[in-house]
Amino acid sequence: MKNEYILETKNASKIYDSNGLVVKAVDEVNLRIKAGEFVGLVGPSGSGKTTMLAMLATLLRETDGSLLIDGQDLGSMSDKQRTKFRREKIGFTFQSNNLVPYLTALENVEVMLRLNKINGRKSREKAIALLTRLGLEDRFDSLPGQLSGGQQQRVAIARSLIHDPSVVLADEPTASLDTERANQVVQIFADLIHEGNRAGIMVTHDLRMCKYVDKVVQMVDGKIARVITDRDEINLLAGTSQFDKLPKQDSVEEEALSANALFTPTLSSALAGN
Amino acid sequence: MSIYLSLKEVWRNKGRFFLFSMVIALIAVLVLFTAGLGEGLASANKEYLEKLDATLLVFQEGTSYSTIESRLGYQKVKRVQRVDGVANAGPIGFSNVEIVPDDGLDPIGVSFIGAETGKPGLPAPIIGETIRSKQAKVVMIDERIAESANISVGDYITIKSTQGTEDKFYDLRVTGITDGQQYFFQPSIFVSLAIWDKYRPKADASISSSRPVTNVIAVELDDPTAMVSMASIIESVVKDVEVTDIKTAYESAPGYSAQQSTLNTMKGFTFLIGVLVIGGFFQIQTLQKVPQIGMLKAIGTPNPVVAVASILQIIFVTVFGVALGGLAVFGLVLGMPSSVPILFTGSSVLIAVASLLLIGPLGGLVSIRVALKVEPLTALGM
User: Fold this and answer.
1) How many whole angstroms separate alpha carbon B273 and alpha carbon B279?
2) Domain residues for A129?
3) What is the tens place of the pLDDT at every residue in B299-320?
4) Residue B182 predicted with pLDDT over 90
5) Is pLDDT above 90 for B374?
6) Contact present, B165 and B206 (Cβ < 8 Å)
7) Would you call B251 exposed, middle or buried from its count of C-beta atoms within 10 A (0-12, 13-18, 19+)?
8) DSSP per residue, B266-303
9) What's A198's domain CATH number?
10) pLDDT for A147-176, tens place per residue?
11) pLDDT score for A71
12) How many structural domains are present in chain A?
C-alpha cells in the first residue's frame, strides 16, 4: 500500500558535540505530513525548528533516526545525490537573499527549471503563468533590486514551486514584510501548496501566519512539544496571540548553543491558550 | 547552466566588468609592449647574425665570442676552410661608419660589414645585385636605410670613416638592397672585405695590409647537426681560436643578456601584477556573492556548475580585456615611428597572449576555491 505521507521523520535527532559540550538541537522528532498539508513550525529561538528544516532540506545530516521524503531515506544518500534530490524534490524559500540579483523575476523562476534541465517555450509559459498567478504580470523583466520585498518573496515562492517539488519549505518567509504583504504572501503560498497537493512546512515566529496552515507543530528544546490540528485552536493561536515576532531569526548555530533555552513566556502562554 | 549564469551576470553588470576588462587591457598593453620591445631590441642586436647562412663562428681565442675584440689573420680563413666537414668559410669584418646624406640631413650611423662574395657573411639582396668584385666600390644596404634615406639601387652614398685623426669620406655605388640586417642596434651596409679593410675606421691611418685582418669567420658545415664536434675539431686544428654556434655568439654580445633579463624581469613582474590584480578583484567579488552562492547551492545547484560559472566569467573578462589590449597595441604600433625597436614575431605575440590568458584563471583560482567552500547554511544565516 502506498504511504500516504510525503514527508516522514522517525526519531530524527541532531546532536552537536563541540569540545565535549553535547547539545541535542533536535531530539527524536517524529513528524508526518500528507500531500496537500501545510504545516507551521513554531517555537522559540533555539527550539530546533531551523535545524529541523535544514535537515529536511538535505542541507544538514541527521545524527540519528531517519527522514523520508517520497519514501526515500535522505540519510542513505551521498552528498551528490542529496544535491540532485534537493533540486528535484524540494522547493525552498528563505528569509532573505532569495533571488539571484542579476536575473530578472522571470529568469529567477526559470533558473529552477534550467537546473533540472527543463528548457523551452513550455517552461517559460509555465513560469509566466505562475508569476501572473502571484500578481507579478507586469514585473517579469524586473531585476530583484527593482522589486519590493513582497514582490521578491512572491518570486521566490514561484521559484520554489515551478519544478513541481514534493515538499516545499519556507524559512521565515514573512520576516521582512509588513503585515498586509505577509498575509498576502502566506495566503498564496498556502493556496499553491494545497492546489499542487504538496507537503509544505513554514518556520515562523509570527503566529498570526498560522491561520493559513493546516497544522501547527510547536517545538521546544529540540522536541515536539505540541501538535495542533484543530482549526478553532489554530485560529485562536493565530488571532489571540500578541504580535509575537521575536527579535531575531534562529540559526542552526544558535540552536546548537541554546537548545536548552527557556520557552519564551509570551509564546508559551499563547500556545496554552491564555 | 554555467554559461547561462556567467553570461547573465557579466551582461547585467557590464559596466563593472567592462571597467575591469580595461584594467586587463592595460596589463595586456604592458605585457605586449614589453614582449615587443624585448623582441625588437634583441633583433636589433642579433638580426644579422641570426640570418647568417652559417652554423659556427670562429673567434680569436680569449675574446669571449666578442666580434669587436676578436682579430683573425686572413690565413686562418684558409685553415678553417681546409678542415674536413667544413662546406664553406668566410671572413667577416665589423665596424661602424656614418652615411652622410648629400641634402644636409643628419648622418645615419650604420654597421659597416665586410664579407666575401660567395662566402657566408654576405646576405643575398632582395633588390639589385650582390657584390661581385673584391675591389669594386659598391655597397649593399639594409632596406631600412633605403627606406628612411630614400636610396635606390644605382644611387651613390657617401660614408664617413675616421682614420687616425682624420675624417675620410668615401663614395660607394649601391648595387643591391638587402632585407633587415641590423647589427648592434644599427642597420648594416655591406662591402667586400678588401674595401671594408681599406675604408673602415682605424686608430692609425697608415695601417694597411695586403692581407686584411678580419673579426670572425663564419663556417658552413657539411652536416650542421655535427655542430658541437666540428667546433672542437676546428679549435684543435686551427691554433688560437675559439668556436661557437650563432646563438651563443649573439647571446655573448655585450649587454645582450643583461638587456634581455631586464626585460624578462619586467614581463614577469607585469604578469605577477596581473595575476594579483585579477585574483584580488574576483576574490572580493566572490566574497560579496557568498549569500547568493549559498542560495544557489541550497536550491540544488551542483558545485561544478558554480565553479565552471566562475571560471567562465573570468575567461570572458580576460579574453575581452586581452583582445582590447591587443587592438590598442596594434593601433599604437601603427602610429609609431619605425625607429622604435618594437617587433612582434608570431612566437613572441603567442607567448605573451597565452601568458596573459593564463593570468585570469590563475588569479581566479582562489575565488573559485572560495565559491566551492561556501556552505549554504552559513551563507544564508540559517
Assistant:
1) 10
2) 5-271
3) 888 888 988 888 888 888 888 9
4) no
5) no
6) no
7) middle
8) HHHHHHHHHHHHHHHHHHHHHHHTHHHHHHHHHTT--H
9) 3.40.50.300
10) 888 888 889 888 988 988 999 999 888 877
11) 87
12) 1
The Cα B104–Cα B120 span in angstroms is 36
Could you tell me how many residues make up chain A? 274
Mean pLDDT by 10 residues, chain A (274 residues): 77 85 87 91 87 89 90 89 91 82 92 86 87 88 89 88 90 81 85 88 89 91 88 80 44 53 34 33
User: Chain A residues with CB-CB distance to B under 8 A?
Assistant: 50, 53-54, 57, 59-60, 80, 83-88, 90, 92, 94-103, 107, 111-112, 114-115, 143, 159, 171, 249-252
Which residues pair with residue A223 across a beta bridge?
Answer: A220
Q: Calculate how close chain B gets to A56, using CA atoms only, in Å.
A: 12
Q: For B300, name the nearest residue in chain A, comparing CA atoms only.
A: A87
Q: Is the ipTM of this complex over 0.95?
A: no
Helices B303-334 and B14-51 sit at what angle, rounded to 10 degrees?
Answer: 60
List phi, psi (to 5°) of B121: 130, -30
Q: Contacts of residue A166 in chain B, CB cutoff 8 Å?
A: none
Mean pLDDT of B178-198: 88
Q: Where are the beta strands (DSSP E) in chain B?
A: 56-60, 86-99, 108-115, 127-128, 138-142, 156-163, 166-178, 188-192, 216-221, 241-245
Q: Which amino acid belongs to residue B237?
A: V
Comparing CB atoms, the residue among A57, A90, A115 nearest residue B301 is A115
pLDDT computed for residue A1 by the predictor: 46
For residue A252, the chain B residues in CB contact (below 8 A) are 377, 382
- Rounded alpha-carbon distances, angstroms, from residue A207 to A48, A246, A262: 17, 10, 18
More confident residue, B76 or B256: B76
Question: A94 and B380: CB-CB below 8 Å?
Answer: yes
Q: Which residue of chain A comes nearest to B377, CA vs CA? A: A59
| Residues of chain A contacting residue B292, judged by C-beta atoms under 8 Å apart | 97, 100-101
Strand partners, B140: B176, B190
| Cβ-Cβ contacts under 8 Å, B11 against chain A | 102
Contact (Cβ atoms closer than 8 angstroms) between residue A259 and residue A222: yes
Q: Are the C-beta atoms of A183 and A204 separated by less than 8 Å?
A: no
Which residue of B lies nearest to A100 if distances are taken between CA atoms? B292
Mutate to test the interface with B, among A82, A86, A255 (most CBs of B within 10 A): A86
Measure in Å the smallest separation between the Cα of B368 and chain A Cα atoms. Answer: 18
| Angstrom distances, CA of residue B160 to CA of B23, B99, B183, B262 | 50, 6, 18, 35
Task: From B20, B42, B55, B9, select the one nearest B278 (Cα to Cα).
Answer: B20
Which residue of B lies nearest to A52 if distances are taken between CA atoms? B382
Which residues of B fall within a CB distance of 8 Å from A90? 300
